[in-house]
Amino acid sequence: MDFAISFLQLFWLILEIASPIILLLISTIVALGQIAGHFEKWRPTETLYWSFITATTVGYGDIRPVGRIARALAVVIALIGLILFGVIASIAVTATTEAARLHADIGQIQELNEIIKE
Hints:
Helix Hairpins; 5 helices; about 120 residues; elongated; mainly alpha
């Protein structure tokens, strides 16, 4: 349980440190989505939904751009979404690594290293 608590504390701490980057990426997704929505004549709520579905690369297909500009923006939004979730995943990996370092048994780590080397 201590490991999980350490992980969560570290995850939120690093997330707080990286929040300017994360907010920039989210703001860019929203702004580009609104531009695409303007060209496609979508309602703002539909546009916001489409932006994040595109950014997560889920792409349900219930709303899809037909114009060239909106399609190009969809590609950019998807790429930015990959960066956003890559940042979040790297934060989770870092928090996991640091929590493991805090709670690891040095003897177990040495045994695992020996097993890996064989």
